Amino acid sequence: MIIDKDLDKLIENLPFFIRETLYNHPNKNQLIEIVMDLGRRPEARFVVGPEYLSQKLISWQDLDYTTKRIGKFSNDNRAGIERTLHRVSCIRNRQFIINGLTCRVGRAIFGTISGVRDLLESGQSILILGKPGVGKTTMIREIARVLSDEMEKRVIIIDTSNEIAGDSDIPHSGIGRARRMQVSKTELQHQVMIEAIENHMPEVIIIDEIGTELESLAARTIAERGVQLVGTAHGNCLESLIKNPPLSDLLGGIQYVTLSDDEAKRRGTQKSILERKAYPAFQLAIEINERNLWIIHENVEESVDLLLQGTSPILQIRELKENGETKIKYRETKFDSLSFFNSEHNLNIWQKTNKEKSSNIESKNLCLNKIDNLKIYPYSIPLHLIKKAANLIGFEPSFTKDISEATIVIGLQKHLRQNIKINRFSDKYNLPIYTINKSTVPQITQILSNVVR
């Protein structure tokens, strides 16, 4: 990785007693931010942890010294330093006077997205989630450079707080050939998003910090016009976005649906359930919990549907090693075996009306967990999908065309419901039948991961 070093341009705007300490600090290149609060000691926060920089307390003069040497604070209380990526945020008292500063170090780091570059080449819209300070902005800055320079696409960045391209009318070189549209007021971000698509014919639009309902609706409008979106949103994971009403529209929106008695009985759910209203604005989602470690939802639409049904989707995990190698694995879904037989989930064992029969089937299934050589009788499901799902959790499936030799049956629910012969055979010999609503790898993986655990 090559790091664009302009840290000294931030340090030289700090009071002398802080500047002197930082210039010679051994962890200088691991600095995340400097905190200056009135009446307190100045504190530096490094990757390895926080550290006081001086015994001297911050005074009004110290705060004034720094604020006069940086750009003007906008209505979101953020300012920058000319031709750099650094951000200075202020805290004000009740008289609107600045009594605290947070000086965040901004770096353009090249090579940070090598582990997910293939996702960019897919042309799908990507949503990036993660807690503050984990590297979302750094990541989308590098994405802008790769898309504009290396893939030669028309890229426009909606830079609300000048964090992506720096606090200057001339964008920072870290974004490559991408163009940048600045936002005069935070509340106007959604208007600038629409203006970008209408006036400048972009192939890709990059947005940092989608946080309001209007911005979510603007993102959906852009997606519907066939433009690739790359954006970040407030939230640690996809589940938190579903629970956030202003942002749930990014995932297609959530609505309560009341089912008829017959339909609720057929599904094995309550009459009032949650469902997705429309297609998501983003097809892919990346959760960043740690630097160089990404959790990827390869199909946001499917992940949202499974989460609303109370089932965890299969997640892809990518880790970028120090040698540049990317390690990819899949996380096995973990859920309680009793809830697996509870038809509140769409991926459950075939419902039995007789409680005793259901209990026998559950006991039979628990025994099957210890059987290495399962024989699967597939019903209305392509074999290659079952093989792919089995490979994800690390075992080789064995199939049979003779139901009397099978240890489990996996099939589509709508077809199995109509097959009286299979149901009678299952009742007689306690043969477990697992059903899914759609022939998809994640749903099949859900079943297999529980059976062979």
UniProtKB/TrEMBL annotation:
SMART domains membership: AAA
A Pfam cross-reference name: PTPase
Statement: the UniProt record of this protein carries the keyword Chloroplast: yes
Annotated ranges, domain AAA+ ATPase: 122-261
An MF annotation (GO) of this entry: ATP binding
PANTHER family: KINASE-RELATED (PTHR20953), P-LOOP CONTAINING NUCLEOSIDE TRIPHOSPHATE HYDROLASES SUPERFAMILY PROTEIN (PTHR20953:SF3)
Name by which UniProt lists this protein: Conserved hypothetical plastid protein
The species this protein was found in: Triparma laevis
Source organism phylogeny: Eukaryota, Sar, Stramenopiles, Ochrophyta, Bolidophyceae
Gene name for this UniProt entry: ycf45
